[in-house]
Amino acid sequence: xxxxxxxxxxxGLASGLNDNSIIQSLVQIASIPLxxxxxxxxxxxxxxxxxxxxxxxxxxxxxxxxxxxTNGVLATKVTSANSSFTAxxxxxxxxxxxxxxxxxxxxxxKWLSSQFAAPSSGVLGGSLQITVAGQSYAPINIADGTxxxxxxxxxxxxxxxxxxxxLTNTTGxxxxxxxxxxxxxxxxxxxxxxxxxxxxxxxxxxxxxxFTQTQAAQNASFNVDGLQFTRQSNVVTxxxxxxxxxxxxxxxxxxxxxxxxxxxxxxxxxxxxxxxxTFVSAYNGVMSMVxxxxxxxxxxxxxxxxxxxxxxxxxGGQLQSLITTSVPGITGVSTLAELGVQSDPNTGALSIxxxxxxxxxxxxxxxxxxxxxxASSGLQAAVDTLVSNETFPGTGFLALDQAGLNTSIxxxxxxxxxxxxxxxxxxxxxxxxxxxMETTISSLKSSGSFLAxxxxxxxxxxxxxxxxxxxxx
Length: 473
Description:
- It is built from 10 helices and 20 strands.
- By secondary structure, the protein is an alpha+beta fold.
- It folds into 3 domains: 1-75 and 269-295 and 302-434; 76-105 and 220-267, no CATH class; 110-215.
- The strands form 6 sheets. The chain has a 5-stranded antiparallel β-sheet with strand order 1-18-3-14-15. Strands 10-11-4-13 form a 4-stranded antiparallel β-sheet, with helices on one face. Strands 6, 7, 8 and 12 form a 4-stranded antiparallel β-sheet that branches.
- It is flat.
């Protein structure tokens, strides 16, 4: 930030002094308070940045707690090997076993045209009406002789969830294949999935496409623990809570039922620890800043750090209380500490003790989720409250700190502006004074030179008064 205008001005030629250097030195002395204001402002800006980072880290902690409270901490893995289906356990899956039997896979509807000689072969003119999932689309008007490839293009431009493709087999015969993109059907009849009706025109020379259905739509049918399920897709997410089933193989040909297989789900300690670690890492990000403020080094510049800030000190205590907070209504394991989350006594950083976590999962695996998700008293609620109390605009303690610092910075900016104006005025007055001095000295020197020159010429102002005063004889 510039503090003064460049110094110019009296040359010092008359006085022999270095006027510019003198003026600049005097201005620098006058600018010392301005430099102090700038230093103070820079320190406050550093504090604002630190508070902003701390608030951002708190937001990350809240995000981690909300995720675990909403989606769960407990990780479950599939331990069985299955052939008619594959299973993927999500965050809400619970350990256990299920008897699963896949009877029938979901299929899409497929239609095939009559045989054509080539993709460029002409199609008989007429109207093609296509209905998908009970919805009829605008008829496609085919001009007589339109190529089979162009008819496929027109079908694909309908915007219907179908795909039209020209296929040529090894003998060179060409067909137009139309199939649904999805599988299964709604309602009671598979015919609702896809129907194609062609109305020929008159006097055409092209070949009638003659569409026929080659594969009827079919819904998936499977059984879980004696309960029968029917779904339009082979990917099922709503049969076993938290588990995605992908059906791969139905009953053998000629049979109505598939083979029953056991789906086994077990607690995944490593996966659970990995999810819990997201919270631990976010917590450590906040605690690291708190500890830096609480334990300054001898060289710490307190004016530009959060050292001594009461809000930060109080935040440290609130964070540490999260570790020992007991969530009511949970049997066996009710605190983070009992899950194996340990706090370093020197740094406050958290870490996870795997044996303790493993034992806790054996005692009550669902407690891992409940510690975070329990309404009002769980850690998700506790962290949400803590973060809101610290960061909510207008009322949060850190938010108020930040607002106060920004107000002080603006006040310092205003003071600097006023002081810069004063310094500029002072500098100009110095220039004016030194210029006047040099002008005066120059004038005096000019007068002195004139007087000296006059003294060097005697009789210049003398008169013949003596001779003229003698009486005339």
